Amino acid sequence: MKNLKFIIPTILLSVLLINCSDDDDTPEPVNEEEVITTVIVNLVNGTNTVTLTSRDTDGDGPNPPVETIVGEMKSGTTYTGTVRFLNETETPSEEITDEVEEEDDEHQVFVIPSSGLNLTSTATNNDGNGNPLGTKISVVTGAMSSGNLNITLRHEPNKPNDGTLADAGGETDVSVNFDVEIID
Amino acid sequence: MKTLLSLALAIVSSCAIAQTCDLKFTGKVIDVHDNTPLIGAVIQIAGLEIATITDFEGRFKFENLCKDTYNLQVSHPECTTEAFSIILLDNLDKTFKLEHHLEELNEILIKGKTYYTKAESILENRVKLETIETFSSGSLGDALKTVSGVSSLNTGNTVVKPVINGLHSSRITIINNGVRQQDQEWGAEHAPNIDLNTAGSITVIKGAAALQFSGDAVGGVIVAEPTPVILKDSLYGKTILSGQSNGRGGSITSVLTKSYENGWFGRFQGTVKRYSDFETQDYVLSNTGLSEQDFSINFGLNKITYGFEGYYSFFKNTVGILRASHLGGGEDQAIAIESDVPTFIRDLTYKIGTPRQEVIHHLAKFSGFYKYNPSSTIKFSYDFQQNNRLEFDVRRGDDEGDEASVDLKLTTHNIGLSVESDINDIISFKTGITGNFQENFADPSTGVRRLIPDYKQYKFGVYGIADIQISDKLIAEMGGRFDYTYMDVFKFYRTTFWESRGYDELFQDLVVEEYGNQILTNPEPTFNNASATAGFSYQFDDDYVLFTNYSLASRAPNASELYSEGLHHSASRIELGDLRFNSEISQKLTLTAQKKGNLFSFTINPYVSFINDFILIEPTGVQQTVRGNFQVWEYRQTDARLIGVDTDATFRINDALNYSNQFSIVKGKDITRDESLINMPSANITNRLDYILPFKHKIDVGIESVFNFRQNEFPDNNFEIFLPETETFQLVDVSTPPDAYHLININTATNFDLNNKTKLNISLRVTNLLNTSYRDYLNRLRYYADDLGRNIILQLKINY
């Protein structure tokens, strides 16, 4: 038994020491590959340009996305538009729109105005099967009004669908809301 | 053996040539393990052709012997015959020790005496081999649910986590063949990575009383042990083949054991399982298939005074997770909950796509014992485990589904040394020390921020337990344990989170480096955990036993509770841990009254536990992200109280008909906030009738009714989300438990002797006979789909 007193701590120590001798390299950070930090909707009619940007640089961190609108949306106007998705945690920022367009049959962008907002949006580009994709849009504004404009990107929606989120199903990759005003 | 006995009797009665000698040789034959007297042992004196048999106290007596050297042979039907030599100079009283429980000798190697009782003052619930075999094609969690008070936390029907008296995950210690299982048990969707078919028996201890295993088993301890090796020259095996209608697949498991009378043994065991998508009454549960391959190798040597064992097991499975459970955010969750059927259903397939889990678990062990005197044994064990968990999500740009979102490798080394000793007839004592090193590595190449950070953990534990036989009827038990834990963690926080929590002021010194919007920290927490147990068992008469146990358990928070921070994709919620957590301390008082009878047996087991600084996770709000709104779940510490009772009753109506009943209920309360605890199992009652059909060839039939009450006590964790299409806020009901349900199961089985060594058992089982559609409160996928519909399982078991 006397020997045991020495054997036990020796074994324990040796195991601990063997394990302690690992080099203390600090782990490398993970930059989220798929995260979408930024949604940019660009609407153009001649010289009238409206840019809606939603940016959330901390992803699922505690800060909410910040929405900004540059330019004035005019009533009774037809805008040619693009919807872009970016990952700005990387430098230079990654254009996620390319991936979405590459996998066009698995994605769809929905532009949904609230009922008080006089605005209609139509997808102007399609996927390989002829169903709307929506990274390119045409927006027609009606009379002066204001309301919420939602941009949703769905992954693996049912295609074709009736244009509503409920019918589309799939998973929400992006859902951002803008407070929009249409002026005269 | 009977012939030997009668022969011995004949020899005794025809006894014997009397000599003019007058020496007495008396003695006792006892069991080497527990010193109990061996009744009916035969002591023969070679050459004299005289023999005698031990009486009820294990005593024997020879008279009229001469001064001489005698060669004795001591035999007993359940022991290996041993030869001894005595020199008789005067009257002699001598005790002989025989190796009893011949057939269970291996248990001594594995557990020593603790196989029989792992704790003296708390009732141990045993899952028998028969039950394990019935669930051969299922999981450990399925088999454990046959014990009253044990339920399960499911993710679908293939990820089954045991819940003991309302507690699960890190609060349950699982001992697999003597090794504490280390397989990232913290996650609610992480089932134990154990092949049920490696176990010969499973013991459930509903409390922390078994301190030799751990001090942090706030919920309880599950001990899975292999079938003991028969100690004779033999080669034997078993194969179980199962096929089932639901999941359109099956499993095959085989075990082959080679044993020698000299103590050497070897065993090989393997299991393969394969299932397609499972089905409910009305639809396919898309992407719920399972593929599993496991094997284990075991070899060793058993002698009476020493022995060793080497063991290696490999476990690999791929588990599909219901496709419809993968959600983008709160809005998707609202739609999925609203919908009566899953939002994604495709044709039944064997293909397992995303989301899915792929787990590989290696376990290697070497253990040995040495009995350095007849009443003391020293044991040594070393084990190594590696758990590699991959979780695959539905990801953009990954059509093949071969880029994991979670890639964790948990490596654990453990060594233990223990001494068990019967100090005298009254007190027996066991004590031991354990050392443990664990390393978690989260592979950054997943491109998804680590859910569990990289860490190294060092643990040291020491314990002592004394059993005191106060009288024939009263046994007292007390024990204590101390565990020291040191963690060396490298954790990346989002800078915004770090600051919003105020960590930048509290834990400034932990910061190692800053990378853009992330911050690398190096927390090094230490935890000192003391645990204790005390109690007694009292045998009123042959039929009634009362167990009372008080246990104090102390559990250090796990890596998930401390360091979670970010979106948990598979749960579609943001989970936040807390660096500031301290250990959770539980006090549990259990009382068990047991009646064992020929006709009527019952057990009633009320308990109450108070848990200080109980760590729970609950929703605290909704967070806006570019992906929409996610519910935020934060861990917090509170004081909790759990009260419950489990009962078991069996009534043998006649030789052919048997009725049994189980009931359990538990009520969990957050005392600090005066509200119900989340995810407490609902009350349930099981009634069962077993009947042996009166045919020449015996056929067993059974019918079982399982009734699960609705859980009426739950916290309100609902939240609201904004629907842009209708410009309204919608309530997302994640709290309300599903309705009560009632399931009927039937089974029938019969045996055939193919030859004198080969036995065939055929059984047919139908679960959910009425194809009832139901959802269970403790199934994490209950929001999205019904539970399993009818399942017909045909099983062939061959023993050879």
Structure write-up:
Chain B: Residues 127-221 form the TonB-dependent receptor plug domain. Chain B: It is found in: Cell outer membrane. The complex is a heterodimer of chains A (184) and B (800). Chain A has 184 residues and is α+β, with helices and mostly antiparallel strands. Chain A has a single domain, classed as Sandwich (Immunoglobulin-like). Chain A has 3 helices and 11 strands. In chain A, the strands form 2 sheets. In chain A, strands 1, 2, 3, 5, 6, 8 and 9 form a 7-stranded antiparallel β-sheet that branches. In chain A, strands 4-11-10-7 form a 4-stranded mixed β-sheet, with no helix packed on it. The longest helix of chain A has 19 residues, at 2-20. The radius of gyration of chain A is 26 Å and the shape is globular. In chain A, 35% of the residues are buried. Chain B has 800 residues and is mostly beta strands. Chain B has 2 domains: 2-100, Sandwich (Immunoglobulin-like); 225-799, Beta Barrel (Maltoporin, Chain A), CATH 2.40.170.20. Helix content of chain B is 7%, strand content 54%. Chain B contains 8 helices and 45 strands. Chain B has a 22-stranded antiparallel β-barrel. In chain B, strands 8-13-14-11-12 form a 5-stranded mixed β-sheet. In chain B, a hairpin with a 3-residue loop joins strand 9 and strand 10 (159-164). Chain B is globular. Residues 1-19 and 102-116 of chain B have low confidence and may be disordered. The chains are: A alpha+beta (184), B mainly beta (800). At the A-B interface, helix 1, helix 2, strand 10 and strand 11 of A face helix 5, strand 24, strand 25, strand 26 and strand 27 of B.
